[in-house]
Design goal:
Largest sheet of chain A: 8 strands, mixed
CATH class of the largest domain in chain A: Alpha Beta
CATH superfamily of the largest domain in chain A: Acetylglutamate kinase-like
Number of strands of chain A: 18
Mean pLDDT of chain A: 90
Oligomer: homodimer
Structural class of chain A: alpha/beta
CATH architecture of the largest domain in chain A: 3-Layer(aba) Sandwich
Chain lengths: 410, 410
Amino acid sequence: MTLIVQKYGGTSVGTIEKIGKVADKVCAHVKNGEQVVVAVSAMSGETNRLIALAEEMSEQPHPRELDVLVSTGEQVTIALLTMALHDRGCDAKSYTGSQIRMLTDSAHGKARIREIQCDAIHKDLEHGRVVVVAGFQGVDEHGNITTLGRGGSDTTAVAMAAALKADECQIYTDVDGVYTTDPRIEPKARKLDKITFEEMLEMASLGSKVLQIRSVEFAGKYNVPLRVLSSFQEGEGTLISLEDENVEQATIAGIAFAKDEAQLTIAGVPDRPGVASLILGPITEANIEIDMIVQNIGADGSTDFTFTVHRNDFPKALSLLEHTSAELGAKQVIGDDQIVKVSLVGVGMRSHAGIANTMFQTLAREGINIRMISTSEIKISVVIDQKYLELAVRSLHEAFGLDVDGKIQK
Amino acid sequence: MTLIVQKYGGTSVGTIEKIGKVADKVCAHVKNGEQVVVAVSAMSGETNRLIALAEEMSEQPHPRELDVLVSTGEQVTIALLTMALHDRGCDAKSYTGSQIRMLTDSAHGKARIREIQCDAIHKDLEHGRVVVVAGFQGVDEHGNITTLGRGGSDTTAVAMAAALKADECQIYTDVDGVYTTDPRIEPKARKLDKITFEEMLEMASLGSKVLQIRSVEFAGKYNVPLRVLSSFQEGEGTLISLEDENVEQATIAGIAFAKDEAQLTIAGVPDRPGVASLILGPITEANIEIDMIVQNIGADGSTDFTFTVHRNDFPKALSLLEHTSAELGAKQVIGDDQIVKVSLVGVGMRSHAGIANTMFQTLAREGINIRMISTSEIKISVVIDQKYLELAVRSLHEAFGLDVDGKIQK
């Protein structure tokens, strides 16, 4: 028997009417002979309402109690959806994170799942019952309510699918799948039928915010086939799974970009062991997340060191770096917060030479200067001036034939 | 060390500001060297909002899921109050019904408490922590969330006080204590400093809706001193406890009344064994609750049988009774839904003759006809025409000296 785990986000369960439609969808799967586990988020706006209450109560809400508070959002949804399923003649049972029990560590607000107890759920499924699970929440070993952080409902669904060895985990959202790039930038962007976990990870972390990155990692780790599809339109969505045999024919899955980046360079640093940690230490200690890092060895025994951070962290990072520069006797600090990162992503890159060259040629042809390059096994990222973002994405989308149906070989 | 359990109802925690004031009150008790457990209701309006959601979702919301839904109301309050306590430098920890664990039977919506596990709470109290408990909710042996029914937060508080062997259970509400009668009817009504459990039970069940009757039963059974006091005014409230040694001096604690009654009489019933159950059987089978029952043996081998029901049930009860009357060959069925019940309550009645006579004389002097009389150990109830309610209450209040400070002996 096929077992699927479905996840419906806040907009999919945003009103009583929409919850009714979710119930219809779930029932259709049950009538189709499938076993169904559903993970749901809070009704859209509810989590924000609860957080606003907490902030009205306290300037720094106690983390344990904040989790007690916000976890009620999903609890409301599981109850309402389960009622709706009963009304449709579909036997169902709701579970909070504590009831499952979804055991996590004790890091309130960003807890990590340790273990899921599935005995009761298996029994429900065997009895033909739909299991409705509160996303986003768990319980630590002392029985305290925890939450997995925003978007954690995706993680809940994937973790349930992994623990139950489900055939597929379906993430229902307000987009109908994963696209070759953002359709708001390139209207010719094409929905992908398939993408690998690794590609999806790079796409997600680079700014294509369809899925929580942790949930993709989780799915990849436990090899849970993950499908992204729309709550509101019919369609097959995009299947995220292990590399398939045809992957050699494909090169580029898509083009991701990150708009809120800023670049910092410390130039003419005396090149000696440990210099990287001297430069980055103060930045990470200030809780600033560093994205790309590039270092060139100079000819004169000095080195240039460049990295990117989120644009919000730019002023602080710049002042820290100037301090470091004086200490190290570096020549210069240069910063720019009007830059973006554009990345080609595709597992086929591994076995296909010339991708980078095609990328650089395409950008050169459009007169776009590359300020920084970073590569990995399945990705090439470049930093360019912000004003070239759309031009770069569109010309690369065309150069790699992404608007043609099916990936093509370059 | 003194251990108190406090309960704050929905209006006492109705806004963020009011929750802040509750936190102030609790902190004052802690600074006074007391150990405090607090049971709270949902913020006023919240339970109704959740029930409205359920009713919008489903015509007959699934009982288990309704409990999952409405129990979120108290969960929100415990989190907010605990945050507020932390902000005031008062260490505190919240507990849902499942976390305590407040074990109940599985009767969703009207569960009964079976057992409370207090180990964790004792440990918290020893560490000087305030324990904040979600009222109204529990968990059954299978881990399902249950609720105790509306007003169940009082029961939660009393049950916690009994289990923890607390020195006092304080019920904070929007009135400042228990009165000799309803001050809206008799402005001279006086707040009682003390009342016994038995008297309070009679007062509560007769319509003085200060406390949930189940919580008074519970408090009496486990001998938990119960104090009713106002969240909004300073004052000592009313202490409800076992009979004290001075009780012999008191006769009447107060005057209760029930406005929504209706009276039914089946007259001239052949008097034979089993006739009462033939008359009342169909009424109780129709789920109509019967209040007073009076039967007189007639001289001619027939009997008159009178009882009262809630006014809403009057038409149905009347039609059932007419059917029974025809079957039994009774003479007549008489009904009246414009009647009220007025009761004198007081443990002192047991040892004082003449109370009934004073009552009947007082009513006679005012020209009030008594339609029905029923007595118990600590109560005398009469049924009278509705139009005489205020007159009866006021003249009895005066006749028994209830507006004088301190109970007096008649």
